[in-house]
Amino acid sequence: MALAILWVIAFHFAMYGNLLRYPLVDFIAGQGYLGVDVFFFLSAYGLCFSFNSNTPGEFYKRRFIKLYPVYLVFLAAYLLFFSKGLAISWWKFLLLQVSGLSSFSSLEIEWFIPALTILYLTFPLLYRLVEKVYGWGLAACSVLFLLSVAGGYLLSGSVLCLFPLRFPIIILGIMTYLAMRGGNLRFLCGIYVLAAVTGVLCTGLSRINVSLSGSLVVPLLLFGLGQTGLRAPDWKVMTFVGAHTLEIYLAQNIAFNHYMSSSPLPFVTNSLVSIGIVLAGSAVLIVVQNLPKWIKVC
């Protein structure tokens, strides 16, 4: 998770800093959108645990507490400092973003949290669907996966844009949970190979810098790394970053998508200010996220 958010930041930094025209930078940072695919894959996998260990009410309560205190502070900061030229009234903007409906109407600020909201709301039904199909075997799961690829690509030309191309990775995250729970590594290898081959065949099919070819290889790469037995160094900084990817994502959204893209300052100055916004914004949002816990402890 830590590497994924850092990769996303590198992608936005290079994109808004006009660095993607340099081959080395383009090679390293240009595929940073795949960090979002890692988020969705791991989120779907993790949601399975939460859904199966909580009542529906507790499941939604936990999702609300995790997401919305931080997101509302982020939206307030955006409205105060970066909302010049907003096409709609502030209350409509808040309603669309918080409800997830902005995914179907307009992309005023950012798309990831509204997409995550839709995933949270629909997850119980989606999980039950995949669980049912999983019981029918690999062939049925392969059909469901291919349908998600086709549907995601067809819908990606609409206002939803970036979210539908993540449908397949979400389906794979749930299938991964079901296969790991049952110890069915043969199934896992089969569906991952199918995803990777489909990704190769989808080379060139992309929308707004997001490619199915890269996205569908992510699970196989993660699985391969997991099977090697390699462990990441136990760096406390990276552990901290991985635990607070939501806060860091929102802070960098302000820094790069809204400040850096319109700032008249020189590149070096602009970069330092943008990094400062990420650090300061992350710190504020982390305090907001943990404030209820600290108050309870006191």
Question: What this model shows, in words?
Answer:
It is a single chain. The protein has 15 helices and 2 strands. With 298 residues, it is an all-alpha fold. Strand 1 and strand 2 form a beta hairpin. It is globular, with a radius of gyration of 19 Å. The mean pLDDT is 86.
What integer value in Å does the Rg equal? 19 Å
Largest sheet: 2 strands, antiparallel
Name the helicity range: over 70%
Order of strands across the biggest sheet?
1-2
Beta percentage is under 5%
Averaging pLDDT over every residue, what do you get?
86
Q: Total number of helical segments?
A: 15
Number of strands: 2
Order of H and E elements: HHHHHHHHHHEEHHHHH
Helix/strand layout:
Blueprint: H1 2-16, H2 23-29, H3 34-53, H4 56-81, H5 90-99, H6 102-105, H7 112-134, H8 138-155, H9 167-181, H10 185-201, E1 206-207, E2 210-211, H11 212-215, H12 218-228, H13 236-243, H14 245-260, H15 267-297
Antiparallel strand pairs: 1-2
Helix pairs in contact: 1-3, 1-14, 3-7, 3-9, 4-7, 4-14, 4-15, 5-7, 7-9, 8-9, 8-10, 9-10, 14-15
